[in-house]
Amino acid sequence: MSAKDWQRPHTMTIDERKKVWNDKQLHGRFFKTLTNPCVDMVASVHWLQFGDLFAETEGFICAIQDEVIKTNNYRKYILRDGTVDVCRACHHPGESLRHVISGCSQLSNGEYLHRHNQVARIIHQQLAIKFGFTQQDVPYYKYEPKPVLENRSVTLYWDRSIITDRFIVANKPDIVVIDRTARKAIIVDISVPHDENLVKAENDKKIKYIDLAHEIVAMWDVDSTIIVPIVVSVNGLIGKTMDDYLSKLGLGKWLKGLIQKSALLNTARIVRRFLSLDA
To answer: Could you tell me the strand order of the sheet in which 184-191 lies?
Structure first.
């Protein structure tokens, strides 16, 4: 057979590959949120270039993003093996991957809170270093924040209720900075929502603490209070506003890579631990 009788395989262009990915009903969900105008696409996939994750871990995270994890929902509707689609943790119908990583009531006060606190520790540690409260830059997962750190110019609160003159429901942000030199206060609150709720979570944080911000200005003799939401999705998506918020805290843009890595590894940890539960 001559060479001309062989059919050349078609090599898809990058745009063609993106279209195929986008058109997939299940696996294309992550791509649709990744290409949202409010999402920083470059930063959201930058973790793939770090080279500091084991290949197995990297592959597992990609499988989570593509939603090809063998949950009961996946087994029932994709594999069609007759599995009953009930969550093995909370026993409610619908054990989808989205439910596992961000919507299970049995995991909210344990696994989800741990993931949230790991991100919050990164911010608190860097603020503590910046303001001279500590010189020890230990790994963030070993860092233990103190409820109050204080010197002549700055007070740093961790997970502490703010006592106000009038009743305010949302009075316990993750971190509060009182900078007496700059005569300003900063309210920092962390959120690790599902991908589709990235922008909503950021806006919700701003609205949630607006009353507390006004009360702090009145009570603590500062000129202004800034609300800084630090939001990264369960699958590592980062909004385009992240750099601006880190700048308001006086922290480097490099920190968003560490925040993203923490969220991704803890999501992978949640899925692994969940799959080990008895069905």
So the answer is: 148-150, 154-158, 175-179, 184-191, 224-231
Residue from 267, 109, 114 nearest 195 by CA:
267
132: left (phi over 0), alpha (psi -120 to 50) or beta: left
Q: If you ran DSSP here, which 8-state letter would residue 151 be given?
A: -
Ordered DSSP codes for 159-219: S-PPP-SS--S----SEEEEETTTTEEEEEEEE---GGGHHHHHHHHHHHTHHHHHHHHHH
Q: 239 is written with which tokens? A: 């909004």
Return the ∠ at Cα 60 (arms to 277 and 101), rounded to 5°: 50
Mean pLDDT, consecutive 10-residue stretches, the chain (279 aa), reads 65 83 83 92 90 89 94 93 93 94 94 97 96 88 94 95 91 95 96 95 95 93 95 96 96 94 96 85
